[in-house]
Amino acid sequence: MFLNCLTVALGGGLGAVCRYLFGLLPLKTNSGFPLATMIINLLGSFVIGLIVGFAQKNSNLNPKVIMFIKVGFCGGFTTFSTFSLESLGLFQSGSYLIAILYMTLSFVLCLAGTAGGLFLASR
Fold first, then answer.
1. Among 5, 16, 21, 104, which is 20 to 30 Å from 39 by CA?
2. Backbone angles phi, psi at 51, to 5 degrees
3. What angle do CA 23, 26, 27 make, to 5 degrees?
4. Is the pTM of this model over 0.70?
5. Quick check: 40 pLDDT over 90?
């Protein structure tokens, strides 16, 4: 149990650092659309799809590696709480169209990212 917690913590720490560094990229838009957060969530969805797909295809994959990436890294890297906060902020500021666009694109593209990762891993 302790080793599992350590595995998740290390993956989560690495994911959080990568998320922070990615957030420093100059991806600001004039409209206020939270592009960086959406891209982070899309990448995380793709990576989780890849690792699950590879795990389904390769039963000899180390379960700790799967846990490190799926629960730890992806959990620390993706930003659903930030997504929620930014969506609410857009609504509160009256940017209803941007909020709806952001939420819809995030939902659709992240599902597509997960499906793409699963598909690519199953080839």
1. 5
2. -65, -40
3. 80
4. yes
5. yes
